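Field: COMPLEX_INPUT
Field: COMPONENT_COUNT = two
Field: RESIDUE_TOTAL = 1497
Field: MODE = joint
Values follow.
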Amino acid sequence: MMLKLKFAIIALLMISYQNVMAQSKTIQGVVVDPSGVPLPGASINVEGSKNSASTDFDGKYILRDVNSNDRITFSFVGLVTKTITVGTSTTINVTLAESTQTLQEVVVAYGTQKRTKVTGAISTVTSKEITAVPITNAESALQGRAAGVTVVNGSPGSNPTVNIRGLGTMNNTNPLYVVDGVLVGNLSGLNPSDIESMSVLKDASTTALYGSRAFNGVIMVTTKKGKKGPGQLNFSTYAGFQTVTKRFDVMNTQQYLNYAKDLGSDLTARAAEFGNINTDWQDQVFQDGLMQDYNLSFSNGTENSSSRYSAGYLKQEGALIGTGFERYSFRANNSQNIGKLTIGSNIGVSFSTTNPERASGGRALLEHAIKMAPYLPIYNSANNGGYQGPTSALDGQDAENPVRIANLGYQEVKGLSIIGNIYGELEIYKGLKFRSQVSLDYYTTEDHTFIPSYADGGAHQQAYASIAETNTQGQSIVFDNSLSYKTTFAEKHNLEVLGVITKIENKFQNIVAGSRNNITDEIDQLSNNLSNLSSTSAETNNLGYIARINYDYDDKYIFAISGRRDGGSRFGSNFRYGNFYSIALGWNIAKESFMTDSVFSTLKLRGSIGTTGNDALDNYQYSPTLSSNYIYPIDGEPEIGVTPGGAANPNLRWESKKDRNIGLDFGLFDEAFTGSVEYFNNISSDILFRVPLPASVGVPGGTQFQNVADMKTHGFEVSLGYNDRKGDFTWSATAALGTSKNEVTGLAPGVTSVVSGPSGRSGIENFSRLEVGQPVFYFWGYETNGIYQNQAEVDAALAPGQSTFQPGDIRFVDRNGDKVINSDDKTNIGNPYPDFTYGLNLTAAYKKFDFSAFITGVSGNEIFNANKFDLEAMPRLFNASTDVLDRSIVVNGVVTNPSATLPRAQGASQNYANASQRYIEDGSFTRLKNVTIGYTFSDDSFAKYFQRLRFYVSGQNLITITDYSGLDPEIARVDTTLGSAGIDVGRYPQPKSVIFGLEVTF
Amino acid sequence: MKKIKYIVVVLLGIFAINSCNDSDLELTNPNQLSPETYFKNEVQVQSAVNAAYANLQTRGLYARHIFFALDNMSQENKGNPQLEGNKVPFLNFSFDASSDIIQFYWETCYLGIAKANFVLDNEDKINALSNSVLSQERKNKFLAEAHFLRAYYYFLLVPRFGNLPIYTSSTTVVGAARSPKEDVYKLIEADFDFASKNLLSKSTEQKGRATKEAAYAYLGKALLYQKKYDEALAAFKNVTGFTLESNFYNNFMDETEHGPESIFEIEYDENLGVADKWGSDTAGDGVAESTLRGQEYGNLGWYNVYPSDDILDEYEPGDKRFGDTFYVPGSKYNNGANTMTAANFSSSAGLRRAGWKKYQNYYKRVDENLDSSINFKVMRYSDVLLMMAECESMRAGGVQATAIGYINQVRGRANVPLLATTLTKEQVFTALVHERKVELAGEQVRFDDIIRWGIASTELAGTGFTAGKSELWPIPNRETSSNPNIKPSDNNPGY
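Field: COMPLEX_OUTPUT
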């Protein structure tokens, strides 16, 4: 049946090319989507005339008074508009194709815009792409699909790190998320299957309306709404396993005993005590995690109302023991038309439980697993708690039993998130609309940790049960009132004007409590025993006055201007308001008469310039405060001390960024081949920077926030798409590529560099560096050149007094040639940020089979492999890489195995305590992120049970091509500071997974 | 229907007007106090003074680094292979301006100075309080504590760095240039002088606070470091009411703190909490009421350092202090229940002769953990006696017999033969060098002593010590990179 229709259409199209006598008549037909489902509410217009119609619930339309040489356009949101010349036929059935990469209507700040009129830089991702890959958070859908957007995932339930167009600041680089007009901090409460589309706003002409919060770009999320037509029930599910297969190659018991003996510790008897077992600690901390996801939705729509209700359940066991994530999500989206008034609401609620990766002693689980002595058993029923750990330093230093850390007691973070809005929109006069919207983003988290008493046998013990709880509650209420006017005058002048007043109220409070229980391990709740309690609260308010004017002449020449005046309470009264603006121009070249016969269906040149701001600094920085967090024992009592909390700065103001963007969009062969190319060049100034104060002035924290730093970022983005159909075979390919390069152009006056890095890791604490003329937080360390083989080599290279260097030590490059190795010899040995990121998405369908493959990657970044630091540095005795068996062996001051690449064991501290090139690796990778094969049942024989049923099998991260020796090049940042980017200290690797899925439409 | 629309429009209009109000942008921090309204009563004044003590406890000072840095430089310590990389350079004088230990030391002292200055900046406010709220005597006492602590921190700094930037107010964020060390000593003397006149006596003050006697002892020490022997002796003579502990080891246990010999202590008490100890390099904030000394030095703990042959061999036969200062194979511990064996002194580089006993918890425990509550007795009466001996011996017209008398008080307790009262000035000096070395071993005084006596080059020969350079630490990079008035080129000679 369907096939016949398609042939009929093709036949009709061919006929339509013939010249036919003009004659007024009535045509009718059905408009369907690519899978043959009728489209209710599709628009049918006669070009150059006001004659139009729309389809009914069954996708049928009737259009009167048409001539055979009229051109009719068929359009529907989200599908490619089709234009057909009427010709002789009276029945025209149309199948509208899916667009490869571009929606015809794009969601922009405070509204939508036709793709052809967009003058800024916007990438969009549609629901089809979002649900093509089984993702647990919405941000992941952007990875590799939206050019210039980088996404790095962490452990289950953690928020991914998202950067748009690289870094524009060394402070908060998180983009702003806007869900149905609600400004939110992240998308963790959102079920990806509820999302209709995501628009990434990348340049000031698209983001300036969000003023002081738009600095890092804006991600607009639109949730699915009810569609016109009879009620439709959808169910989808998937389930599968995820696993981490890669391991570090560490020594087994026999190797370890030999190694320890070489280092002076004979542990043979010790190992025998435990029966000479061999525990693979890495196998103990990784597990095959089950993941399952269920979604049920019901969508319904009439002429004057639409609604959609959905419920989802996700449960994901992590690939590391003790980790997991579970989420229940509910959403109700409604809208109603009452004459010229539209009232609606979009409300989503989610409950989640996260079991984060647990750590101890400032070391990640994986680091413990690497360093644990292999002869130790996991369990020992004689010990309190039932685990065996190192009894003394002899059993290896640093490590604790990772299974005990992960499994004894628990840490559970329960979250509640409500994101919703209620709006009313009234058409006061033709084209003149007033809209009022109240939005709410509310969340609570309860972070509860319970660790019963334990004693692993000596070195690690806790004589009491400890209970800790942190409860956080935050809310953001946004009240928007807007007036918009849209008109066309003198036929070809299109004008849109928008004015908005917005007010944002944010509140935050938390309570931190902890206690101990010396009596029992049975109770996991807080008590008054050795308890501590504190709370904090904060409030910030913003006011914004927004205006935008869009004008175009005949869709050819486009002009847009927007501005926002923003007031924020985070800043002192001296600089409380900031102004942001943008101007953009566009030229639809393809619409020019001289292009009529060209292959270009789209050719548009556009450019924009504008400013945005960043207010993401700590609250109340402008006012001086006292801190009472000092304790000193007097007469055996903890006496409280109070002193100034830091150096306030009443002159703080926004960070500001000037964006310049130029882009070219093109579509060839009736949009079969589409693409765009962009270049951006952004200049950030007044970046809030914690200016290091001289330590001697004695300011706690040692810094003062000042608007002093500057940087610049520039890059290219390319998006390409192609789709083709040959009979039953359709296929498409899209590719996205983004580059970005940044450079610090100024820090504070007189400050040329600042160091940073992960805290608490001796040797790499000061490894990341900000320096004028260099990329943000590059790796700063020594270059290396082999190993000193004998004393003569040491003496030749170094001046007397550098006595710590001996044969078998690493030869650090003496860059300035002064024969002294010190910080003057450190240099740029790597950049944690990639030169470019890319993605390639292939889809194909043959009859009822569908196939998709998605490849993503990054190139040109370095990773500081801190695991290697644990695996190869040999500072103390603990388990390590088997490579240490081939370390340099020094006998009588001469290295006896010159081919060794590792220095001597337990050598001079500089071998390991100094971050050097030795730990730097190429972080580039290409990853088959997803590959899916599906089969769809849509035969009439099933029609009484369901409209459509699809089975699929899908694999994630199955193939990764990389030179990186760690477990996963796709690592998350260590903590919230940028200064830790690209440093892999045993991070949660992205697991491989295979899942089976089912989608049913009833 | 129409009515509804009008009502909606009117309501929305009202909301729109109400929504913009500039006063919404004026918010005050609900979490913290404001300095403008502080110093209203005794508790507030006292709390500002308390904060200035907290820096003594930081890892930059007595929680971790100071004992390593000074005991290593004096070669009282030798390092086992596991000694961390940042502490090794203090054994061989290879540290430079990037040393984190030097940075922490510098920072925490200056943070303490700023806290003391915060109290002194508000002297007028404190003095303006009615005497019924706070008596003049108590006002003076609190101000004197601030003066004492400011001088204490400067006196930790000046022997390490020489010329220093001087701050007498906490209100600036602009770095000062280095002033001659003579000016620093002038400030130290004036502060200790004010403190000695206004602090309470040990008998009436709370345990842990600075006292009149401590102020006199440190005033004397600061004068002695400038070789102002007569003035120093006068100050020391005001340190009254103290006797030597009959049991030397009482100076190094938890239960016998604030005993008859103790003049000033750095307080630790793990029962008050240790939650923030790893975060407290310099600021002194949070609950961090323990020191790592026990774990770091203990031969049953991390055993990062061990007593050098040089220090072990300094003791005369029969010196009772040896057994109270060091553990050796055969030593009893854990209340006498356990005995150390040779294997208890093993390292991956072989067996060691001894481990430190001062400030270890083994006297009552079988092991060390990350927390020790034992206070550092940073000023003991025996130290004062030996400094008095030095002043008496060195001053013009000094009576050597009187000096020897002071030394013999210390030797008497140690059960070693008393010195003949006929010794010459040179012989007294030699005796003092020995006596301070053994009496105060592992107490961070020997390096200062050999520097001020001018004998470091010979005492530290072969260690990497470079005369003309190693006497002082470099000003840390952190300071020279952010202080417009101290450039890297202004650093100490050789750095």
